[in-house]
Automatic annotation (TrEMBL):
The keyword ATP-binding does not apply. Keywords: Ion transport, Membrane, Transmembrane, Transmembrane helix, Transport, Zinc, Zinc transport. GO terms for cellular component: plasma membrane. It comes from Sphingomonas alpina. Residues 21-199 form the Cation efflux protein transmembrane domain. The chain crosses the membrane at residues 20-42, 54-72, 84-103, 109-131, 151-168, 174-192. This is Cation transporter. It comes from the Bacteria. GO terms for molecular function: zinc ion transmembrane transporter activity. It is found in: Membrane.
Length: 220
């Protein structure tokens, strides 16, 4: 699932790194839209849950590119918004998966498999682009690990499609969807918790600076 460490580190100044990050952002945002639409039309909860992953990574890359150089409070607020959105989307996938289980609707295996393979190729390509930065700073390494882990997660979606095709039931799809949705909920909660800690630390820092300035003014 999405990696929260990507959102809280400053990006490198290397223009090649930033160019790769832009490519990763575009690829992930595109696949998020594709998986969300196809997941809804094919009634695949696993694809919808995997779309969560693409959304989370897109938000992480965007935060790294746009707000990572700003003050801590703005980075923390952006991370909190991303975490809250991931949590809402994760809950939505769980609810729809539960509804599908009650309704007994089976997803379409072929669209699941095709889009799952596309997602695997997309994440594999991004991981390959980021491979040269795997030994860089924490931000570079975390982004590469995120993409590598996402590619592994896409294998689960493809296997779920094979399970749906082979068994003719919805359960392989729902099992994978539930796992990915729970990971999304967990990741969103972790991101929001860390963002709140950073906001508290930032306010405490501002208070300390204000007290220090007040003490200096009083001594003068």
């Amino acid at each position: 699932m999405a990696c929260n460490s990507c959102a809280n580190q400053k990006p490198a100044n290397d223009p090649r790194w930033r160019r790769v990050l832009w490519i990763a952002l575009i690829v992930n945002a595109t696949m998020f839209a594709i998986e969300l639409v196809v997941g809804a039309t094919a009634e695949s909860r696993a694809l919808q849950a995997d779309a969560l992953d693409f959304f989370g990574d897109s938000a992480s890359y965007a935060i790294s590119l746009v707000v990572a150089g700003m003050a801590l409070r703005w980075r923390a607020r952006a991370a909190f918004a991303k975490g809250a959105t991931l949590t809402v989307l994760g809950a939505w996938v769980l609810v729809t998966a539960g509804w599908a289980a009650l309704a007994g609707a089976s997803p379409q295996a072929v669209p699941m498999g095709v889009i799952g393979v596309m997602a695997l190729i997309a994440n594999g390509g991004v991981a390959a682009l980021l491979y040269r930065y795997r030994q860089g700073d924490a931000n570079m390494r975390s982004v590469w690990i995120c993409s590598r882990n996402d590619a592994i997660g896409n294998v689960a979606v493809v296997l779920a499609a094979g399970g749906v095709f082979g068994t003719g039931t919805m359960w392989p799809d729902l099992i994978v969807a539930t796992i990915l949705a729970v990971l999304g909920l967990s990741g969103g909660a972790q991101i929001m918790r860390q963002a709140r800690q950073e906001l508290r630390a930032d306010r405490a820092s501002d208070g300390s600076i204000a007290s220090h300035h007040g003490a200096i003014a009083a001594s003068e």
